[in-house]
Structure formats: structure tokens, C-alpha cells
Amino acid sequence: MAPEQPGTTPLAARIADLIRLDGPIGVDRYMALCLGDPAHGYYTTRDPFGAAGDFVTAPEISQMFGELVGLWAAEAWLRMGSPSPVVLAELGPGRGTLMADALRAAAALPAFRDAVRVHLVETSPVLRQMQARTLSGAGPVWHDDVEALPPGPAIVIANEFFDALPVRQFVMHGGAWRERLVGLDADGRLAFGLGGVAEPLVGKAPEGTIREVPVMGLQIARSLARRCCEAGGVVLAIDYGHDGAGYGDTLQAVRAHAFADPLDRPGEQDLTVHVDFGLLRQAALAEGCAFHGTAQQGDWLARLGLAQRAATLSRKADERQAAAIAAAVERLSGDGPGGMGRIFKVGAIAHPALPLLPGFETFAAPDTASSPEPAP
Asked: Which residues contact 256 (CB under 8 A, 6 or more apart)?
């Protein structure tokens, strides 16, 4: 084993050894190791959320977010025909905050709350322990992947889930697409490079263009879409990204609430990519499902009643609390600096017989048109 480079991490040393043994690895494998390595992975070894962590998600900003998601789920259940029991699943549930707020709001419709069976898809032992404490009264059941969820009608919530799934990256070089790889430079440090000519991607692009292909995300989306078509249900996806085919390197690292080099300190910082909602739509349509959206988060929350909920909370709040509520509304729905309203998108995979779901009222009808297969 080569000596560890100054300022590196145990996982960086392990990745370097893998590269020396087998050659450069794809960006997808690099992301998977950084985020999910059992001994040194980012999500498997820590609580990354909140002021003391590296980033803050919408459920941690305000209870209003999870409450509105819970009411959305209850309304979706009604439009599904009120099946009982129904699986209420969250993918990558963080500390369990969103689910706890959603269940509290769902109590407004007792029949829905009685029908719900809570299931969580989570691989992190650290976060499972936190979720168990937060949801101690809800009887959650944990699973390692979506395929392990029990059969039957389901409402699946995926808030900031798809952005953390590994992607492959391809670069247009010399008139052909070549896969972007992580290897070692002359000093033995991690560095990006290019592999041989990759399997064909659709279309040409200017020299140096980067195209991201979320292979794992599309596999999960198609699996969930098949489930929705066969057993009934919906999948609510909320994430930062864009709608429609796009190019560019969106791989980013965050540590201590600031951007960092994605190759720096593997296992000790978050890695994410922007979600292509256009590809999620293609995955849904390819399996015969409908797709509702894509909406901007600010618009979607406004249609669900964010302002009204904030006003209700503010009537019982003191001046400091009211200011915090107003700041949370701006953070969740605004498009200024730090605002999530425009950069975050919302879409839903749904059984094709379902009517338009809440928050998507500006769309004339669910998207059910035929669509080409997603890129490989």
C-alpha cells in the first residue's frame, strides 16, 4: 500500500489503492464509494444535516414543508380510491423530520392515518437510529432498497433523494463520447481523466461538453413506475435540477455549508448532481405511467397553501417566531439568494388513471404521451 498523501482521508487512500490495482474508475463508482462505503462513506458514518453538519434540507428549515407534503399525500390517497392499507414510504428520509411532520398533518384525515404503514428506504446505520427516535410512535419498517418495499398501493416520497445517486459522466472529445473517469495524477492524487470511446450516446455536442447519465436513478424510477402501474400509487420527487435534456458538469461537493472540490477529502463531504426531471418523465412513460409536472417548488408549495399555513402559525407566534416563519417561507419558496423556490423542482410519477395531483394545477393533464427510451 502506498503511503497516505498529506491532508487526505482513509477512503482516499483506499480509492487510490483500487485505482492502482484495477485502473481508473467511473464517476458513478467514485460517488458510490464516497457516499456509501460501509466503513468510511459520508452517509454511513455521520449526521450531515443542520447547522452543525454540512447542509440544510427543506424539512429542517420548517415544519411547514413536511406538513404540506403530508396533506398532499392524504389528498393523493383519496384520489387513489382510499386503499387500506397503503404503504407510505420515504426514500432517504434523513433524520425522519419530514415523515414526522407529514404524519402529524395526516392526522387531519383519520382514515388515511389509520391506513398508512410507514416504510423507510435507508442504508445508513447512523441515520436509521435517528429516524427510530424521531418516528418511535409510527412503527416504521426499514429497507435497504426500493425493491424490498412490500407489495400493494403506495405513496412514495423522494425529497432530495435522486440528487445523491451516482451518475456516469461522458465528455465529447475528438468527435466521440468518452467516459469521464477518476484516476491518479503524477503525484498520486485523485484526478479526472478520460477513458476510451464509450457506448453511443444520442447526438453530437461541442468539444468538451459533459453529459451526465443517471443510470441508477433511472433504474429506480422505472422500478417505482412499474409498481405504480401494477399496484396503484404515486411517487413524489422533489429535488434541485432541471426539466429536459441538458449538458454540463453538475457534480458538486458541499462541506460545512460551502462548496468544495469533489475530489477533495472523499467520504467527508457530500456529493450531489442536479436531477434531470425530463429523464424521470421518460422513465415513467416508458413503463406506462403518467408524469405530473414538472413544477417549481415555490409554485407547488404556494398552491398547497404555504402562505396560509404560515399565517396560521404566525397568529400564535411572538415577534421573533413570526420573523423566523417569514424567513422560512422565503427560503422554501423564494428565488433570491439561498432561495429554493425556483432551483428546486417537483414532479410525480403516477398510475395513468389518476387525475391531476395537488400542486400541479397549471398543467392541463398528466403527461402520458409516448416518449423515446432514456439514454443508456
From this structure: 54
